[in-house]
Automatic annotation (TrEMBL):
Pfam families: SbcC_Walker_B. Keywords: Chromosome, Coiled coil, DNA damage, DNA repair, Hydrolase, Metal-binding, Nucleus, Zinc. Belongs to the SMC family. RAD50 subfamily. This is DNA repair protein RAD50. GO terms for cellular component: condensed nuclear chromosome; Mre11 complex. InterPro entries: P-loop_NTPase, Rad50_eukaryotes. GO terms for biological process: chromosome organization involved in meiotic cell cycle; double-strand break repair; telomere maintenance via recombination; telomere maintenance via telomerase. It is found in: Chromosome; Nucleus.
Length: 818
């Protein structure tokens, strides 16, 4: 497409050369007299354009050397194409670098967010560790390392204290029984010996009473208080068990894992920041190069146009010089005009084709930009999909963590249930012992009842025998009675012999019992003398072993088991309450977990991590975009200021030339347009720059505003000159210049000066193919002065006919009516 456009341009240049030759030929034919003036105008135009070309090239030399690597020759026509190719290459490279830089910034933002989350988790874990250490340190050391030893020692202390307390409680019935026995038998309850005097009896009674009323009651509350303290301490230590396990989990696994993750994220962030700095420098350099190339393109185009204009001017100058030396008289004005018209039609056709090609090129460029935008959109969509995938993986990980927490709570509940098992087993054994004791009691009661029934039967038999004897006496059986009395006496004698033998055996048994009791009494006295209270528990156990069957149904044994059973029941109730509390706590934890899960699934917290990440990325992206826009704004503002300054200098230069050529007075040397710029602000934000223009007149070094200080003619002349300067600056490609009554309020000298200035403009623009000057005026002298320049031979006169219609007539300047 560019090659076709270049072919059309080349063809157009060739045709323009032909048209220029034909115009020159036609001009020579029509006005041979004005050839030297035209030649001088062409040379002046050439010098001006050469000066502009040199100025442009001097200002671009360093930049062209940087971009192209060499300074192009004046006749090099490929410089704009080379710059366009370089611009496209740099633009693609800049887009690729910007995409990489944007991806890097997104990655950095994601890593920073992850690092922040990791640091928050690490701080929370460390605070939890400090809190747990504070709770555990007072009982089991800072890290709970001696927990098992403390628990074992506490268990032994509880068992020892319980045995001591049981022994002390068991000694109370023993002392009461001993006191009753010593009062009833007046003998020692241990050795069963009588007292030799009353003092020994009182001393023994006082010793037992003192132990019963003072020593044991004073010792029992101390042991019970100590037992309660030990049990409370055991409960406290049991409650610390989960905290110690949690402390070990945090200290040994979770905190080291988070420390490692934090270090890895920090290393990745440092590496990525280094890469981003390098990419940012690269992007900045590419932007600078691209801005430099884009700034060079219009300037190089202008210099290329100046080169072509200089070539055309050289051709025209050569043509003018050749016409001055001689002209071809064989070609008529009609033939040359017809050829010139054909060439102009051909040029117009080429212009249309070139415009069509430019539109095609513009459409292709627009399509390429749309495709590039589509590629960028697809890349952004890819990044969003990747972020959603990462978010999904994060949610799965969080789900696994919550499942692990739930499993841990369930294990804690099972462990609590297992800890209650031994207590329940012990309670079951005690209940079994109680049932056995109750069964033994029932058996003993049955035996006692059988003995009572046997005695009652014996009494009944004796009563029956007595009745038979009475009946027998009443029947008069004396003989049988004597026989029976003899037999009874014989039996009595035999019974008395048996009684004596029994007494002898009883005495012998008592003697043996005394001897045994004396031995046991001596042993017990020695042991009691040494440490009675220390071995009270052993004495109670030996007493229970010696009189196990005999003392089963007595109140002391049953009361002791009742008390123990009550204690075990209390302990069971306590354990049941503890179990219910722990089960309730477990249910509370489960309900809290379910509540948290429901809350996480709610509208507020659903996709909270993704929303936070998206908003954070949007915030960071907006901040970066704001910074980039601020940079672009500053660069664009400087460029506009520079462009404004250059254009103002160019306009004032043209105004100065036109004023000097046109104004005939001596009170004003030159006029200038000056601007005062300021920046509007809205709420502290710069919006746009506003310029206030004013026209000043200079005399020497003094400058005054023209407003209110100049005449109407000066105003009109200044207005026309300013408009001509603006048209010369901004309407280079528009060759139409129209003036409506330009001589209003002008004196004769200034009218002549204006006409001369317009004639110079026509000379300067005579080489421009589409230049036209239209003057609407009633001043015939002004038209006559313009006609003397030799650039036209006719004018159009507009008049009104009788029927109020307008009529336009083409009239020769030579016949103008004054």
């Amino acid at each position: 497409m560019d090659e076709a456009l270049e072919v059309l341009r080349s063809e157009k240049r060739k045709v323009e050369v032909i048209m220029s030759r034909l115009q020159q030929e036609l001009s020579v034919i029509s006005r041979q007299s004005s050839s030297r003036g035209a030649l001088e105008a062409l040379r002046r135009d050439k010098r001006a354009k050469e000066e502009r070309y040199q100025t442009e090239m001097c200002s671009m030399e360093a930049e062209l050397l940087t971009v192209l690597g060499h300074i192009p020759a004046p006749d090099d026509r490929d410089v704009p194409t080379q710059l366009e190719n370089i611009e496209r290459t740099k633009n693609r490279e800049l887009q690729s670098s910007q995409e990489q830089f944007q991806k890097g910034r997104f990655g950095l933002s994601r890593l920073q967010t992850q690092l922040e989350e990791t640091e928050n988790q690490l701080k929370a874990k460390k605070r939890r560790v400090e809190a747990l250490q504070g709770e555990v340190a007072g009982e089991c050391g800072e890290d709970g390392a001696v927990y098992d030893q403390v628990m074992e020692k506490l268990r032994q202390d509880i068992e020892t204290n319980f045995d001591d307390m049981s022994a002390v409680k068991g000694s109370l019935p023993f002392f009461r029984k001993s006191l009753e026995k010593i009062h009833s038998t007046r003998k020692c309850p241990l050795c069963t010996r009588g007292f030799s005097d009353h003092a020994g009896f009182e001393k023994t009674v006082k010793s037992i009473t003192d132990r019963l009323n003072n020593t044991v009651p004073r010792l029992l509350p101390t042991l019970e208080g100590k037992q309660h303290q030990l049990q409370e301490k055991q409960k406290t230590l049991q409650e610390l068990k989960p905290k110690i396990e949690e402390l070990a989990q945090l200290r040994d696994r979770e905190i080291p894992r988070l420390d490692a993750a934090k270090g890895q994220k920090e290393a990745e962030i440092v590496k990525l920041k280094t890469e981003l700095n390098a990419m940012e420098e690269k992007v900045t350099g590419l932007r600078t190069n691209l801005e430099q190339i884009r700034g060079l393109l219009p300037r190089v185009s202008r210099t290329s146009q100046l080169c072509r204009d200089l070539e055309e001017l050289d051709a025209k100058i050569g043509s003018e010089e050749s016409q001055l030396s001689g002209s071809d008289s064989s070609r008529s004005h009609v033939i040359v005009s017809r050829e010139l018209r054909d060439v102009q039609l051909k040029i117009e056709d080429l212009d249309r084709k070139m415009d069509h090609k430019r539109q095609q090129i513009q459409s292709g460029v627009q399509e390429i930009r749309q495709l590039e935008q589509r590629v960028n959109q697809l890349r952004d969509e890819k990044l969003r999909l990747q972020e959603r995938l990462q978010e999904k993986q994060g949610l799965l990980t969080k789900k696994e963590d919550l499942a692990a927490i739930i499993q841990k709570e369930e294990r804690d509940i099972k462990m609590s249930a297992q800890r209650h098992g031994p207590v329940e087993e012990k309670l079951r054994r005690k209940e079994e012992e109680k049932r056995e004791l109750c069964q033994a009691r029932d058996e003993a009661e049955a035996v006692s009842k059988a003995e009572v029934d046997s005695l009652r039967s014996s009494v009944d038999a004796i009563g029956l025998t007595t009745q038979q004897i009475s009946r027998y006496e009443s029947e008069g059986g004396e003989t049988g009675l004597r026989q029976l009395n003899g037999r009874i006496n014989s039996i009595k004698r035999e019974a008395e012999g048996k009684t004596r033998e029994r007494k002898e055996l009883e005495d012998k048994i008592k003697k043996l019992q005394k001897e045994v009791a004396n031995v046991e009494l001596q042993e017990r006295e020695w042991e009691d003398q040494l440490q009675l209270m220390r071995v009270a528990a052993d004495v109670a156990r030996k007493e229970r072993d010696a009189q196990k069957l005999r003392e089963k149904m007595r109140e002391m044994g049953l009361h002791r088991y009742d008390e123990e059973y009550s204690k075990l029941q209390q302990e069971q109730e306590k354990m049941t309450r503890e179990r219910a509390r722990m089960e309730g706590g477990s249910l509370g934890h489960e309900e809290r977990v379910r509540g948290l899960q429901r809350e996480l699934k709610g509208d507020m917290y659903r996709d909270a991590e993704r929303k936070h990440k998206d908003m954070l990325i949007s915030l960071r992206t907006t901040e970066m975009a704001a910074k980039d826009l601020e940079k672009y704004y500053k660069v664009l503002d400087r460029a506009i200021m520079r462009f404004h300054k250059l254009k103002m200098e160019e306009i004032n230069k043209i105004i100065k030339e036109l004023w000097i050529k046109t104004y005939r007075g001596g009170d004003i040397d030159v006029i200038e347009i000056r601007s005062d710029g300021d920046t509007e602000e809205s709420g502290g934000i710069k919006t746009r720059r506003v310029y206030h223009y004013r026209v000043v007149m200079l005399k020497g070094e003094t400058a005054l505003d023209m407003r209110g200080r100049c005449s109407a003619g000066q105003k009109m002349l200044a207005s026309i000159i300013i408009r001509l300067a603006l048209a010369e600056t901004f309407c280079v490609n528009c060759g139409l210049l129209a003036l409506d009554e330009p001589t209003t309020n002008l004196d004769k000298d200034n009218i002549e000066g204006l006409a001369q200035a317009l004639a110079d403009i026509v000379k300067d623009r005579s080489s421009q193919k589409n230049f036209q000057l239209i003057v609407i005026t009633h001043d015939t002298e002004f038209v006559d002065v313009l006609g003397q320049a030799g650039y036209t031979e006719h004018y159009f006169k507009v008049s009104k006919e009788v029927g109020e219609t307008s009529r336009i007539r083409r009239l020769p300047l030579s016949g103008m009516e004054h």
